[in-house]
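Thought: the user wants the 3D structure for the chain below. I'll pass the sequence to the structure tool as-is, report back what it returns, then summarize two notable features.
Action: structure_tool
Action Input:
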Amino acid sequence: MHEQDVQHLLQFGESDWLDYKAELGPGIEVPQTSKDQRDIDQGKLLKDLMCLANSPSPELRRYLIRGVKDLEGQRHVQGVSRSLDDADIQSWLHGKFDPPLNVQYWQWRLQNDRYVGVFEITVTPGVAHVPAASHGKALIKGQVWWRIGTQNQLPGAAGLQRLFGPPRPFPRVGWMHGNRLNEHTDFRSWVQQLLQEAQNDRLRRIQQAATELRDVAARPRQPAEAPTNIRVLNTVSPAVPTSINDKRIQPFLRELSDWGVQLDPGLMHPPDLWGTRPTIWPNWADPLSSLSRGLEGPGCDWYDALSELVKLVESFYRESNRIRKLGQQPHLTLEVHNFGSALLSGGLLRLTVLEGGQFKFSPLARVPFAPKLGEIRPGPGGTAEVVLGDLKPGGRLTVTIKNVHRHLEYRTVIRAELNARNLPQASMTNLFIT
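Observation:
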């Protein structure tokens, strides 16, 4: 875990997977306390960790954050004065739960010599943790607690049935980044990075071409003579006009300025460059061919230099548009995992864009009579549906989505609703693309 991960967690309020504690009690925060007080406060902490681990939340990682107060929807980072070590936590946990809790403690030092700590709990779906030993008055051997919403509770009959009942599937949906299942995809920063890399490469070449254009424009005007080689202008670059005027020059200069290339507008009108207009010359190599257009004097070299500059600008435009399109119409790798201990039977995943985009399918796209596993098809109301079929325990299905269209400047939120014949209720996840 990194410090930026903590900053990300602070965006969320308390829930069934996240708890905040301004402090953990004097038995933990104050070094010199009685053994009875230490046992009481350590028992309260162990109970809080058990409640988070037993929560029915779909999150595979749960957190208790120390040194932060959650008040009126705002998180106040005040820190605590005492430093803790992960070895202390493992010592308190030893032999306390069956099966053992998987907890790791992380800690960061603030500027005022205080600390913020994070207890990270990694859970296995379908596994309930039972106290194997008492600790203080809070943790009682055999007494199971869990967390519902923001409250620690005794599970009751229905809760015990869920905690210790028959195996059930536990599906999770997310974007795949490397080997991690994530609900967040940061396309904006990725696109900006690609644009910056492309710009750095093009900028270097554009500056070289601009320098060459300056050199050519600074050459003295030579007497005009009939050229020995006839240049057909359109073979150099169709994008460069045979006549240059201010309506063409000013936008071009502004584009170059945006990329850090400053050109004197006078370079577009070197002295006497256009004094001799493009002239009709016979093609001496083939007198029977049609007449060709040519430029007299140094205009040909200047024209070549300008042509190279324009082509670089155009190539940057094409590359930039291609990269931006990747962000506006991304190909997203979506994975559905069954972390549970039972078969997921007849699964169907429905994707709904809640904000910032839409699904677009070909007008000819229809729901097939016998859809294939993993097939993406149009659903009702502009949704997209993915056929999951049966997913065995530990199984997963990978799907590449190419049908979402979005605006790069705004975030996109997609609700993933997973239904199956043996799920008591739909599994809902919001997927974020920024």
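Final Answer: Structure generated. Residues 224-243, 271-298 have pLDDT under 50 and may be disordered. Helices lie at 3-9, 26-29, 35-54, 86-93, 156-164, 187-217, 246-258, 299-328.
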